Structure formats: structure tokens, C-alpha cells
Amino acid sequence: MNKEKIYNLIKELGIWYETEEHKAVYNMEDLSEVKIKYPEYDAKNLFVRDDKKKEYYLITVKGDKRVDLNKFKEEQKTRRLSFASPNDLENIMKLIP
């Protein structure tokens, strides 16, 4: 799903949102150097996959939160999870790590 489709889906669901463009950041420390409009609503994305590389998940959480992949696995009834590769990120999400 590309950015335009995501925005359309959010609009269809009646969810209010704002977008803010900034330089690419690769960790929360990098983000601390960027001035953003709502710093209290920072977030981070984790792109993970199951051990068979069949299912991929984009997990978004508050910037200061830790993600327990084992807990996520149990709650979502998935196979064992690990971080997706840079190649997967580029091929699936069209993002360059």
C-alpha cells in the first residue's frame, strides 16, 4: 500500500491526521535532533517478519516504548518474529534503510 492509498484509507475511516515531513531518522536519538510540531506524539516503526518470511508486520509504537516481539507473537498468534532485512524493507515498503 503506497502513501496515497494509506491517506485515502485514513480519510475513508474518518480519522483526523496531519502530516509532517522531516529528514530521515534511523533511531530515536536521531529524532531528538529534529524539530517536530508534536514531540509528545513521536512514534517508531518496526518492520518484522515471521521465521518463514511469509508474513510481515509494521509495528508502530510510541517512541519511548519497547516492543516485546514474543508477546506480540503470542497475542497475534504468529510464528516466531525477527526484524526484516534491509532488502525486504526496500522490496516491500519501498524504503531504503
Compute the number of strand runs: 3
Please work out how many helical segments DSSP would assign: 4
Largest sheet: 3 strands, antiparallel
| Low-confidence residue ranges | none
**N- and C-termini, Cα separation:** 18 Å
- Tell me the radius of gyration: 15 Å
The overall pLDDT average reads: 92
Structural class based on helices, strands and sheet pairing: alpha+beta
- Give the percentage of residues in beta strands: 15-25%
* Spatial strand arrangement across the major sheet: 2-1-3
Sequence of secondary-structure elements: HHEEHEH
Shape: globular
Q: What is the share of helical residues?
A: 25-40%
Structure description:
The chain has helices spanning 3-12, 28-31, 69-76, 86-93; strands at residues 43-50, 56-62, 81-83. The chain is α+β, with helices and mostly antiparallel strands. Strands 2-1-3 form a 3-stranded antiparallel β-sheet. The longest helix is centred in the N-terminal third of the chain and has 10 residues, at 3-12. The mean pLDDT is 92.
